[in-house]
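Quick question: what would this complex look like in 3D?
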Amino acid sequence: MMLSSERNDRLLMLVFIAVVLCAPIIFAPIGAGYPDLLQKFAIYGIFAIGFNILFGLTGYLSFGHAAFLGVGSYATVWSFKLFTMNVVPAMALSIGIAGLFAVVIGFISLRRSGIYFSILTLAFAQMCYSLAYSVLTPITNGETGLQVRALAKADESRSLLDADIRVVDGFFGVTETSVPISNFFGLKMSGWEGFYFCAILLIIAFYISLRIFRSDFGLMLRAIKSNQNRLNYTGINTRPYLIVAFVISGMYAGLAGSLLAVTDPLAGAERMQWTESGLVVLMTILGGVGTLIGPLIGAGLIKYLEQIFSSINEQILEATFSFLPETLQHFFVGITSLFVGEGWELTLGLMFMIVVIFVPGGIMEIMSRLIGLFRKKPTDNKPLAGEAQPAE
Amino acid sequence: MDVILLQLLNGLDKGGAYALIALGLTLVFGTLGVVNFAHGVLFMLGAFCAVVFNKMLQLGVEKPSEDTGLGFAPPPEVVPYVDIWFGEEMGSLITSYSVPLSIILVIPFMLLVGIIVERGLIQHFYKRAHADQILVTFGLAIVLQEIVKHYFGANPLPQSAPEIVSGSANIGTWLGVSENLVYPWWRLIYFGFAAVVIAAVFSFLQFTTYGMVVRAGMNDRETVGILGIDIERRFTVIFGLAAVVAGLAGAMYTPTLPPDYRMGMDFLVLSFVVVVVGGMGSLPGAVLSGFLLGIMQSFAAVASYASLVFPNPADHSGFFYNILNFIDSWVFFPGIDQVIIYLVAVVILLTLPRGLLGRAGVMED
């Protein structure tokens, strides 16, 4: 579908940058043109892009990527508490720590493939979740979650969980008025500034992912997906490539977790729960595994649906169906209220099943089918690069 | 000593639940070759069967209460049908036995659910990648879970064990060990129940011709098909059986753990770990590792090993006590019981790649 020539890539990149920077205008008609939601699009987009580097290219289905998201969040909040409210060291720390975690988990999990790999990553993520929830309470503040606090007064000696020190900020004499807000060298990370910060990182993340897809390294990962045995027989050791892919995707997840904590300085254990890992898998599948923009579309769609579907209540539904006779109105309100509001996850689950059953290639496959219909020229039936194949 | 025995018993009870879920999971896995992420939800559905049965027993006729002469009528009393049909004493006895009796509802219902799920969904995924199987069953799990949440709400619904067995058994005095060893009756019954179900499933597979054919199908589906046996239908039955086992485990577990729509997912991750530790496709392995991990977990949950082995304060000195105390200072954290299972799983998988009793050639493609 997409020719991977230099020119096309440059065009894709330009269109992508334009769309991301104009997002507030583009998404305004569907009611998503406000910074909080757009930020979520960008952050989960980064998460999904990173996940896609592992799953889309190598076919190794990790069910534990939420662990890196959580680790990134905790590292960021600790950096805020200890050093400075500036986001640069916080993000560097998060990416570094998430990368370290990924090295350890990847080194162990990647000894196995297929279903064993999925279960091992799942076990590691659940272990991290349990540790964060109870055992490591001094670091993670248990179920309450870790928060940024006001600076500790000089004469007080309280626990770090109650008050912060922010050594670097103190050294440079940054004054603090009320609730500390993360900043990028003075630029407050809230509202539109926050969104554009995430957007620029998203563009960088997308560019790196594009380079990886087009590189020899990406080609090697694809080769692992299509037939790992054959590669091994030709004398290539595939494990280092896999570990590097795992670590890169872990670092993407760490960055996403860090940005979550940057825009809302708080980290909780529930970010590491395995359903969260399932969500990123869903985002990637929904958009189209192994495609460049697919995971981004999937992430945006799911976050949008979450926002919109969960906010619809019975009054809105009744207003929508008010043109119908009363019995029919009650009938339709009763049916649709199952799928919205509190029950929006039902829609999510159904969507999940429908996509996996009917369009394993996700939205990108639907789009390429549509384009094929309109062009009316014989399209080759080659499956998209994104067909989920198990790791052999 | 008796404290250790108590932890062992605790572990057997929890291990029973793990073993039952893992048994069904590995049955589906070994025969059908399907990774079923919706299995935990089947466990949850079984538990909610007990809730529904309990509610059904309490249905009845509204009888207007007598006017007390205070000027307003008190709310009408509900007389359950069972009281009307069987008399009041028999009726209340039946109601108090709602959890074990709910098996009457669980078995046909879970069989139906299992068959519908297999025919409607799983059947089409035999040939597809494991990743697709995981994803579609994960989606199914979310859907079923949300439906249950819609009808029963998000709060746990406690169920009570029959009154006769609500107390505790004084095992210590029977065995003549000590007087401190008391243990809830229901947990003993659950353990016994799990043992019976496991034995039944094993003998079904081991001693009947039907089971023999299924085991042959586990090893080589194609050859069994070539021999003219409708292996597809047997697989449907096996999936139904796995669903029933999960449902029974769930229904009987309700007095210990109040059913809540999330319980399936919580147990699912654990039972996958159990299956993998036991060795994929190995039924004895699943049972063994279920009990093993259950016992591990209950031992990890106790505050300190030193006080476990030396409960008497007078013994708090000496070589072994000091060693245990030293270990405690490193090993014991609150909540370590949640972590220990995964730690054990990782260690076992890395040392024994096929799990405890895994056979060569299963899921190694």
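Answer marked as accepted. The longest strand of chain A covers residues 146-147.
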